[in-house]
Amino acid sequence: MRDTELLRCLLRVEDPWDVTESKLDLEHGRVDVRLEWRGPGRCPSCGCECAKHDHRERVWRDLDLCGDQLYLHALIPRVDCPEHGVLTVVVPWSAGRSEFTERFERIAIALLREMSVAAVARRMAITWDHVDAIMLRAVKRGRRRQQPRLVRHIGIDEKAVKKRHRYFTIVSGHAFAVAGAGLSRVHDQTALCQYHHLHPQTDKQRCCGRHQQ
Predict the structure, then answer these.
(1) What are the b/e assignments for 46-85, b being 16+ CB within 10 Å?
(2) Residue 208 pLDDT more than 60?
(3) Which of 42-56, 101-115, 119-133, 193-207 has the lowest mean pLDDT?
(4) Which CB contacts under 8 angstroms, 24+ apart, belong to 37-44?
(5) 134 exposed, middle or buried (CB, 10 Å; 0-12, 13-18, 19+)?
């Protein structure tokens, strides 16, 4: 079996994508794999076959291969759809503008459940900012999947942000894991921020909250 065929199987690459080249750099502990789109152009919105407009080079960090860092390289085609215009083909191994594959981000999120951001950055050999961006993307995906639910009991807390009396007002649902935060620029705006969150409550709900304090 050729190296490209082996990598195609290991990376779960499927048509119309194909592994065309691989390069091992033992000195720097790095493996670079090139993938190419072999099929005709297809619109990511409607799926119709259309002409390719141009290509854009992108690189993604994938899970390590036998201890060496693995990078995927690909020229991502853009297609010219008569109905939807010029669009970029969706790649199956990553989402959006992330610099990492979905496999890589899943492992990072799993580690974040047990470790700090700094510890995950050291473990995955990436920067603190990269781990933070992975975490924020995961939170956004989770919030998009959330279904609207009635919040009957809430908690309000305030956290200082650096200096100059800047605060986060944090409103959280006690019955399930959901939270929203509003940033008040000065301490005096905290009451206004709390009123904004509490305004949809009924008078009975507000009275119950005051009696419990």
Answers:
(1) eeeebeeeeeeeeebbbebbeeebbbbbbeebbbebeeee
(2) no
(3) 193-207
(4) 37/74, 37/75, 37/76, 37/77, 37/89, 39/15, 40/16, 41/77, 41/79, 41/80, 41/89, 42/79, 42/89, 43/79, 43/81, 43/83, 43/84, 43/87, 44/79, 44/87, 44/88, 44/89, 44/90
(5) buried
Strands 68-81 and 85-88: antiparallel
| Longest Cα–Cα distance in the chain | 74
Q: Backbone phi, then psi, for 66, in 5-degree steps?
A: 55, 40
**pTM (2 d.p.):** 0.71
With beta carbons less than 8 A apart as the criterion, state whether 124 and 107 touch: yes
Question: Dihedrals φ, ψ of 80, to 5°?
Answer: -105, 95
Segment 26-82, tens digit of pLDDT: 999 999 999 999 888 888 889 888 888 888 899 999 999 999 999 999 999 999 998
Q: Is beta strand 178-184 parallel, antiparallel or unpaired with respect to 68-81?
A: unpaired
